[in-house]
């Protein structure tokens, strides 16, 4: 079963300091952690895709009636913290395993090497219909 | 002859054979099928019977026969024949040409690699389509390999290639080699420029792709491989030589360009002992050869700049005054804001950071919200000792880049300067 683990720009449970105010070594450790997690999930055969999204300041919102020119709204937007920052798509054997991976991702190191408790949303990906309804 | 040697030879000959078939018969898809059959026949027969006297002529001949058969047959029969041929290698043997065949001699005379490059990098195609088609037809990569390199689903890539072929068939059939009638500025040169651009894009795609991976080794190597075949077909063209030199000199720094955790390491901080000396020697030789007849094109000039960087044993040995002269020449020839930005760096190295910053001021409009402008300004402010401004520029650049490794690099750079 596939799950999407979602990260937003909201602050983490145990850390209010934004990453660009950390010490260089702390930033490096955090990047190293994310990288190792990606490698671990690829090796265990559970990783489908993982992507980080560019800054919300580069976002555009588009709406169209299908006939006239589309309406395009620029970012940034007032509630930046609700913005998607990145995601993993994983293919795992159980919902418990999805939660376990999310917990591991949440405990990424921050200032002083302490886990920051990032909020990770775990969402099942819709699947094909069952063989019989 | 060992199997791997035959495979290498077939890989080298494949684009020439495909080029010859497309040029003579025009149908890209059918020519590709015929090529596959000819390669299969060669792979079956050559190891057992030894190489024919003229391997390329042999392949063209077998391919041409197959193609003519295919053109005559309806598509259903064609599919059946291909399937039969794969099951029954002896039937392919029957199609092999008599080595004394007179046709071979006339076929041998021209290298059709160039024909194929012109076709795949047709101006009617978007760069993405031209890249895919070139990798497939000239590079001999499978659709799956190309899709993987671009992190795209295989079906998407297959469609892209099919549409590209269709587009060419509509646009340019029968295929006509571009004319060189207008001398220097002829159509031929414009078409060649397009080929060079596509090869350069393939390289940079492998070199600095967005997202997780900073480099995808295979695409960079593939671009160099392609530039080598182009250079074999046009050994005396300074821009072709310049492009090959530029790619070699850039790729020579590959191992030094990223750290253990994939982090970016800027030129000035790279361990130059990790640079590939062999590639540098070849690149410098080619770059020198290409400028012998003067500075005529952008690839040649960029290769000369890369050669100067490669020859500096330590960053402080870099011949910045000459690099600045070369950027001046490049800007006169191909003026664009990114060249000016590079010239600003060279200017700062020769005349001090403020002179460089003044030059970047002129780019505020043309490169607004471009992360490179902010990143360069960050470095120049750092050089000038203005850490506060540098941090602001690095932070802005980190916000604007869409490359993850680059964002990490800029964030850490800012954090280092912020530390009291």
Automatic annotation (TrEMBL), chain A:
Domain of life: Bacteria
Domain YCII-related: 1-106
Listed InterPro entries: Dimeric_a/b-barrel (IPR011008), YCII (IPR005545)
Pfam families with a match to the protein in the record: YCII
Residues covered by region (Disordered): 56-75
Record-stated family: Belongs to the YciI family.
Name by which UniProt lists this protein: YCII-related domain-containing protein
From TrEMBL, chain B:
Transcription regulation recorded as keyword: yes
Start and end residues of each RNA polymerase sigma factor 70 region 4 type domain: 119-168
Keywords: DNA-binding, Sigma factor, Transcription, Transcription regulation
Signal peptide: none
Residue span, DUF6596 domain: 191-289
Residues covered by the RNA polymerase sigma-70 region domain: 9-75
Membrane as UniProt keyword: no
PANTHER family on file: BLL6612 PROTEIN (PTHR47756:SF2), BLL6612 PROTEIN-RELATED (PTHR47756)
Entry similarity comment: Belongs to the sigma-70 factor family. ECF subfamily.
Protein name stated in the entry: RNA polymerase sigma factor
Biological source species: Nocardia tengchongensis
